[in-house]
């Protein structure tokens, strides 16, 4: 992941070279929608490309400075407990179930609910099983079954506001277009590892949290699953509130 000084360099490059413009042109190919803002789709934040994270980071810095301290605290908690606490929702969701980064939300969020269940392309059922096995074998951690077996339901509350045609093939093409934008900013060998295709909250947490916090993530998760709390985590979350973008 990227430190803050590197992020500013890449944001400047993306602005100068029109990469953010290309990103939003791809977003504009999707149908416009409205929803009831129930927040159900924010239970499991989907992954985003690095160029989308940079776009969101720029939006936060330019428009939401007053909300950043509390946002970073929520982001830190999400980072530590994403795989341990089923009650967590996306840190960018406020108390009124409104997405505070809605104008720049990533493609995966924009595409939710546009396709019927049989054509949905964002499922990760097998990936969760593999991840749960990895945590058991490498760390001795048994992820809660309600997290491993969670399936984000298809939403029937999304309304299309125009008649733009959309199907699974087009969704895949648009995703590919955004993925290629990452290669304009970072070396291909880094992009191809898929290590950068993670939820926006994970991007942000790794940018702002110390190396010590990152290395203690597994220990904190294990402690929380065993006792229902972690004093180490709470210390990191409190320190996070003083971090500026």
Helix tally equals: 13
Rg from C-alpha positions?
18 Å
Q: State the end-to-end CA separation.
A: 16 Å
Order of helices and strands: HHEHHHHHEHHHHHH
Structural class: mainly alpha
Percent helix, as a range, is: 40-55%
Number of β-strand runs: 2
Shape assignment: globular
Q: Which runs of at least 5 residues are low in confidence (pLDDT < 50)?
A: none
What proportion strand? under 5%
Largest sheet: 2 strands, antiparallel
Mean pLDDT: 89
Q: Strand order, biggest sheet?
A: 1-2
Task: Walk me through the structure.
This protein is mostly helical and 245 residues long. Helix content is 53%, strand content 2%. It contains 13 helices and 2 strands; from the N terminus they run ααβαααααβαααααα. It has helices spanning 4-16, 19-27, 50-63, 68-81, 107-111, 125-139, 145-148, 168-183, 188-191, 200-208, 211-215, 217-227, 231-240; strands at 33-34, 159-160. A two-stranded antiparallel sheet has the order 1-2. α1 (4-16) crosses α3, α4 crosses α10 (200-208) and α4 (68-81) runs antiparallel to α13 (231-240). It is globular, with a radius of gyration of 18 Å. The two termini are 16 Å apart. The model has no long low-confidence stretch (mean pLDDT 89).
What is the gist of this entry?
With 245 residues, this protein is mainly alpha-helical. The chain is 53% helix and 2% strand.
Keywords, please?
13 helices, 245 residues, globular, 53% helix, mainly alpha, two-stranded antiparallel ribbon
Write the layout of secondary structure elements.
Blueprint lengths: L3 H13 L2 H9 L5 E2 L15 H14 L4 H14 L25 H5 L13 H15 L5 H4 L10 E2 L7 H16 L4 H4 L8 H9 L2 H5 L1 H11 L3 H10 L5
Antiparallel strand pairs: 1-2
């Amino acid at each position: 992941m990227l430190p803050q000084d590197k992020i500013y360099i890449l944001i400047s490059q993306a602005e100068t070279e029109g990469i953010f413009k290309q990103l939003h042109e791809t977003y504009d190919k999707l149908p416009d929608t409205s929803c009831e803002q129930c927040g159900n789709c924010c239970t499991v934040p989907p992954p985003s490309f690095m160029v989308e994270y940079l776009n969101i980071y720029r939006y936060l810095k330019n428009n939401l400075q007053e909300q950043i301290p509390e946002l970073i605290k929520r982001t830190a908690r999400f980072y530590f407990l994403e795989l341990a606490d089923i009650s967590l929702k996306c840190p960018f969701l406020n108390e009124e179930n409104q997405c505070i980064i809605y104008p720049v939300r990533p493609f995966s969020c924009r595409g939710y609910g546009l396709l019927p269940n049989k054509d949905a392309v964002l499922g990760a059922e097998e990936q969760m099983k593999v991840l749960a096995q990895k945590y058991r074998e490498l760390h001795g951690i048994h992820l809660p079954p309600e997290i491993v077996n969670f399936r984000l339901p298809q939403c029937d509350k999304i309304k299309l506001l125009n008649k733009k045609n959309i199907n699974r093939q087009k969704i895949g093409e648009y995703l590919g277009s955004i993925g290629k934008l990452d290669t304009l900013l970072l070396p291909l060998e880094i992009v191809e590892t898929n290590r950068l295709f993670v939820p926006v909250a994970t991007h942000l947490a790794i940018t702002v949290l110390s190396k010590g916090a990152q290395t203690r993530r597994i220990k904190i998760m294990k402690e929380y699953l065993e006792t229902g709390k972690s004093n180490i985590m709470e210390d990191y979350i409190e320190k996070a509130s003083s971090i500026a973008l």
